[in-house]
Design a protein that fits this description.
The chain is an alpha/beta fold. The chain has six helices and seven strands. Helix 5 runs antiparallel to helix 6. It is globular. It starts with 12 loop residues before the first strand and ends with a strand. It comes from Stephania japonica. Pathway: Cofactor biosynthesis; (R)-pantothenate biosynthesis; (R)-pantothenate from (R)-pantoate and beta-alanine: step 1/1.
Length: 272
């Protein structure tokens, strides 16, 4: 017999249509149930599992989204080669949570529909520079066209609480990422310069270094010396994500860097 909606289940309900997902969540909220969403691009690892575990402590129900979002790719990254194995992801959920894992897996093909059969990917290709990979995933807002998002901040006033969690790392400090599988052994060794330089910058800030530019320069230099190419390195306010010049409040150091053909991201909070 099929279990009632909203009840814990060993195998999650799989929803692929956003209208169905919206209906399910509204039905659950109408029953006064709270919902945690763990957004992922799939190819699950222990970092994702830790988020699901934490989600259980904050709500009645847990939804895991598996959606390879084109907007999260740099122009030179090939969207089509991002690692993906949906059935293996379901197996990982079953193995990690023999009982209740997640209540719903939301697995849409494309969240963005611009009419006339166009998805976000094709719409982006119409109005944006698609870059060397030809994936057309950059926001079109800057071009004054209708293909991109135009509202980003708390103006939307959604009744949503964003709950952060510590980054799960390998034993040597490398942040877990689905992209790590593409690193060669040598590239992986060099990529440790990201977490090591961030840790040194964090320690320097906590010991009184206040110049954000000097802290950024130290991290950038370390990554370059290791053979990486820095995409961005910024120190921002933890709450607003606005770039700051001085270490005088809780901050987060955000970095993206290339090693070979792999773009890695990492961040580290600094509490002063």
């Amino acid at each position: 017999m099929e279990e009632e909606e909203g009840q814990p289940r060993a195998d999650p309900l799989i929803i692929t249509d956003k209208a169905t997902m919206r209906k399910w969540s509204r039905t659950m909220r109408a029953q006064s149930k709270t919902i945690s969403l763990v957004p992922t691009m799939g190819y699950l690892h222990q970092g994702h599992i830790s988020l699901i575990t934490q989600a259980h402590t904050h709500s009645d129900l847990t939804v895991l989204s598996i959606y390879i979002n084109p907007g999260q790719f740099a122009p030179s990254e090939d969207l089509s080669t991002y690692p993906s194995d949906f059935h293996a992801d379901l197996d990982k959920l079953r193995n990690a949570f023999p009982g209740r894992g997640v209540d719903v897996v939301f697995h849409p093909f494309d969240l963005y529909d611009y009419g006339e059969g166009r998805s976000r990917r094709s719409a982006a290709s119409d109005c944006c520079d698609s870059g060397s990979a030809g994936n057309g995933v950059v926001s079109c807002v800057e071009d004054g066209k209708s293909g991109g998002h135009e509202t980003w901040v708390r103006d939307l006033d959604f009744p949503v609480t964003v709950i952060g969690s510590e980054i799960v790392r390998e034993s040597d400090g490398l942040a877990l990422s689905s992209r790590n599988v593409y690193l060669s052994p040598e590239e992986r060794k060099k990529a440790l310069s990201i977490s090591k330089s961030l840790s040194r910058a964090k320690l320097a800030a906590e010991n009184g270094q206040q110049s954000c530019s000097e802290l950024k320069n130290s991290v950038v230099q370390s990554i370059i010396e290791a053979g990486g190419k820095v995409d961005y390195a910024e120190i921002v306010d933890q709450d607003t994500l606005q770039v700051v010049d001085l270490v005088d409040r809780p901050l987060v150091f955000c970095v993206a860097a290339w090693f070979g053909k792999v773009r890695l991201i990492d961040n580290m909070e600094v509490d002063v």
